Amino acid sequence: MLIVLEGCDGTGKTTLANKLALILGAEIIHCTTKTPNTAWFFENIIEMSKTRNIIADRFCYGQFVYQEPEERKVTKDELYTLELDMMNAGARVIYVDASEADIKKRLNARGEVTTKPIGYIREKYESLWKESILSITVMYASVDNKEDSYFEYRYNKE
Q1: Please, is 137 exposed, middle or buried when counting C-beta atoms within 10 Å of its C-beta (0-12, 13-18, 19+)?
Q2: Which CATH architecture has domain 2-153?
Q3: Can you tell me the distance from the alpha carbon of 75 to that of 69, in angstroms, rounded to the nearest whole number?
Q4: Any idea where the domains of the chain sit in the sequence?
Q5: pLDDT digits (tens, 9 = 90+) for 25-64
């Protein structure tokens, strides 16, 4: 099984990944600027997920939000192929979101800043989900009430 967590820095992806990994006995793979991030890299993760539980803390989508087209290692066509492979493998994509104020609180607590404005990042993800062929689960996580985070289903493809 493959669960992909995407979202702006500071939304709670890693916290969610750690909780899910404990429940599911899953391996967490952190996709960062230091991982290859090529279509082949993501294909291997999808293939591995057919025999073990994997949680991807970011995946192929982040580069379409944070990078310019010439910087990306995955093309739009490759993204479409990856999504087909994810669909065939039964992968689930969870977009972890929070209010801009909550994201700023979390990042400030960690002494971090985003490379792009938070509003821009959230808009880019929204745009990606509208183009996706997958059903995307949106989890909205509040700073003030961590226990009352909830799932909201949007971007479902029928």
Answers
A1: middle
A2: 3-Layer(aba) Sandwich (3.40)
A3: 8
A4: 2-153
A5: 999 999 988 999 999 999 999 999 999 999 999 999 999 9
